[in-house]
Amino acid sequence: MYTRDIQAPRNSPIENGKPLAGTWNKAFTQVDLLDIHRPYAWPLPRWLMDWRIKEWECFTMHDEHFFLEAYLANFKLYQIVQIFIYNKGNKENYTFRKLMPGKSWHLPSKLDNASVECRTPGFFFRIHTWLIAGTVKLDIDIAASKQQPAFTAHLAYDMSSKDVTPLVVSLNFNERRNMYAFKAMTAVRGDIVLGGQHYNLDPGRCTGFFSDSKGYFPYHLKGVYCGTMGFDSEGRRFGFHLAENQAKEIRKNNENALWINGRLTPLPPVRITMSNEPQSEWVIQDVDGMVDLVFTPKIINKFGVNFVLSNGDFFAPMGQYNGMLLSAKGEQIQIRNQWGIGEKLYLRV
Fold first, then answer.
1. Pair 137, 127: CB distance under 8 Å
2. Which one, 125, 250, 332, 341, has least CB within 10 Å?
3. Model pTM greater than 0.70?
4. Are 142 and 85 in contact (CB under 8 A)?
């Protein structure tokens, strides 16, 4: 069975100007990739190196009423906020999106107590990461338009529980350039108001993922990501995140993991294949017999960006997972018609 070393906590994924590779289960004190010495073969000014670092934070939330994904991304040429929400009751889905040129803000280099917000007329999005207080909070307030209703959400991710074990990784693209990711599955409490209807989120029934990512990603950035969360047939809180990216030595370290009641199982690298277009079924498998899943897209969410010298295709369908995962204890976790999301990203920036 696949295993991976979990290293002792440390302050940063950078040492003596070089990026480290590894897996941890506690947040770094600080992640500032500008501390890497000479990430490119030729010397570059600090402002230009900063432009090469891409970063985003992502939230997912799932209960018996809703599936929500929200993310704030800073690609330096432009910034994107997107919220996707699916109402299981009436089977309606909405996408709220804001594309802004330039880089008016950075995501924080620390998660202990920092905030970032995006505010434009009729659109407010704020993240407060406060790990020293055991919480991460997301606030969204979007005015109604001719096409979509007003939407407000106040979500609090409970990081204080002993059942929360994050996955923290640093993955190298080469000797001097890397990516970092923090992922944690938690109970979620809060409120959602959609179209004038108020819904209270019960942390005993609502589960979510929070993730924070930064990297000197390749100019042609490609990746496929899969994940979901909820409760299994025994009532245990569980979730998984799987990714296929451009990092090297993914057998030693990757960003794949399974959580069951807070217990973390690092998973092996996976291959995600699609028979035709991304609208077709996604087959997700490994060579160790720990991952055998099929993702069937049901609701298509896609858009493209063409901006100055950059373009991108974002494809993020919502659908259902079926199959099996194997935990570190050798237990088979059966997945049956579990709602989740998949993402296929291509970005030239």
1. yes
2. 332
3. yes
4. no
Decide if 221 contacts 349 (C-beta within 8 A): yes
Question: E strand or H helix at 49, and its extent?
Answer: helix 46-52
The answer as to whether 312 is a domain residue is yes
State which residues form the domain around 305. 14-348
Q: What share of the chain is helix, strand, coil (3-state, %, to 5)?
A: 5, 55, 40
Structure tokens at 31: 């992640």
Give tens-digit pLDDT for 183-233: 999 999 999 999 999 999 999 999 999 999 999 999 999 999 999 999 998
**Please, are residues 118 and 127 in contact by the beta-carbon 8 Å criterion?**
no
DSSP string over 19-76: E--EEESS--S---GGGSS--SSS---HHHHHHH-EEEEEEEEE-SSEEEEEEEEE-S
Instruction: Look at the alpha carbons of 311, 212, 223, 120 in this order and tell me if their dihedral is positive or negative.
Output: negative
The rounded distance, in Å, linking the Cα atoms of 249 and 168 is 16
Strand, helix or coil for residue 103:
coil
Q: Residue 147 pairs with which residues in a beta bridge?
A: none
The answer to whether residue 5 is domain-embedded is: no
Answer yes or no: is 4 within a domain.
Answer: no
Tell me the DSSP string of 260-307.
ETTEEEE----EEEESSSTTS-EEEE-SSSSEEEEEEEEE--EEEEEE
pLDDT digits (tens, 9 = 90+) for 284-342: 999 999 999 999 999 988 888 887 778 889 999 999 999 999 999 999 999 999 999 99
Q: Are 174 and 248 in contact (CB under 8 A)?
A: yes
Domain count, the chain: 1
Distance CA 102, CA 308 (A): 11
Tell me if 39 sits within 8 A of 51, measured CB to CB: no
Taking the C-alpha atoms of residue 124 and residue 191, their distance in angstroms, rounded to an integer, is 16
Spell out where 159-218 has E strands: 167-172, 178-194, 197-201, 207-215
| Cα 218 to Cα 42, 85, 172, 347, distances in angstroms | 16, 30, 11, 9
- For residue 18, give the amino acid letter: K
